[in-house]
Amino acid sequence: MKMNFSQLPPALLVSLLTFGATILADAAPPEPTRQPLVRVVDLDPGESADVELADGSKATVKLIELKETRDPIRDAVRAARVTVEVNGETTTIDSGNYHLPVTVGGVQIDCSITKGYYSNSGGDSWGLEKTARLRLWPAGSPWIEPGTFVYPVRQRWFASGTQFANEPVYVDGGELPANKKIYYHNDLDFGGCEAIVDVVAAVDGIVVSASNEMLPGMIGTPAKPRYDVVYLLDDRGWYYRNSHLHSIDVKIGDRVKMGQKIGTLGKEGASGGWSHLHFGIVSRQPSGKWGTQEAYAFAWEAYLREQTPAVLAVARPHRLVYTGDTVTLDGSKSWAADGKALSYDWTFTDGETAKGATVQRSYATPGHYSEVLKVTDANGHIAYDFAVVQVINRAEPDAVPPSIQAAYAPSLGVKAGAPITFKVRTFRTTHGEERWDFGDGSEPVTVKSDGAVERLAKDGFAVTEHRFAQAGDYLVRVERSNERGEKAIAHLWVTVEP
What we know:
By secondary structure, this protein is mainly beta. The chain has 2 helices and 38 strands.
């Protein structure tokens, strides 16, 4: 039976009509009215496909082979590389893990997921039935239409910890040996300051689910009601998930605009106890199933448009190794607006330094390390990022060292003398305290978080405030040790304007 629209609240009725379609209780959601720029194909090795791109041009793409690298601790996929042929030109590209589309054969292409990630994970977020998913755009095309997508959090790029695009979860112990299944993070986790950082609508759309309420007609769609979650539906027919919200400022049926605040970032729900926005896009995939539309490239592109940085440093994803093993840290995904070569300078926890886009390290002591990467462009512009390395004692693999999350706000437009809120939480130990070094010559500050004994504790993060007297770039460090002396270390990069 059709919904009686005369019984709807006027505001909800207006919202639905503004969206341009009637959502019926027993009918599917409205058909998309916008065609996205991306084209998606799923292929097996040896299989090819002819693809008509968004500009009407044609491309022939073939999947030649897939190679995956796994770690010895969890047997987790740490790298997946596909060799593809595009319009007769062959190249190898990396899947997910902070990699952006590349141009080959006159086409932009990326690989968002491979089937190997299914082998020891707990679910299917992608709707992938073949070996690899390839996405294609015309050469020189934006990845998502300008003016239709914005960065979903009001904070600096990599302002805190992240888990993006196939990284195994690590903060809450999700990739530890005791766990039978691995949670590969198909969506984007933007770490940030709990209850302070605004979460905004990434697109113009309608709120189809907010808190525990959902619009009629949404059964069978990706939208799911949960007390800490907002789902938006846009005119592409894509669903946008915003999870772990500390507060929610919209209700079902609301028509929201890009950049409109929909809530504040938090650690509610199945967050693992660290404060972040879980942001994801779900769309129909070549298999016919609903599946993840990998969002890293869209977030990257939106941030560049909005903040126009000269340089971005990327030292992620995080690493997991045994003591004594060698790990490669990679800053080559960093970027300069001028397109010229960057210089790379590493500073390690033990005080050693190195140069180059990639470096190798080994660790004798278990811990949660944060290694500093500084990149500099030809004009002297700098950016920092931090490579997280979690080191497990080979002799005692179940004696896992602590991990840590640090965050600050505001992270954009910070002025000299203005107060900045810093928050920190250490996981897997209640021993000791956190010690802040703000990198400006001021005395260290000691605080004590709860050790994440109760994941959703309202006061789980320890809070302090600091003011930087002078403009400049500051590397802030916070650390805490467990009873075995194993450290969890985090860094933040704070830029202070005059």
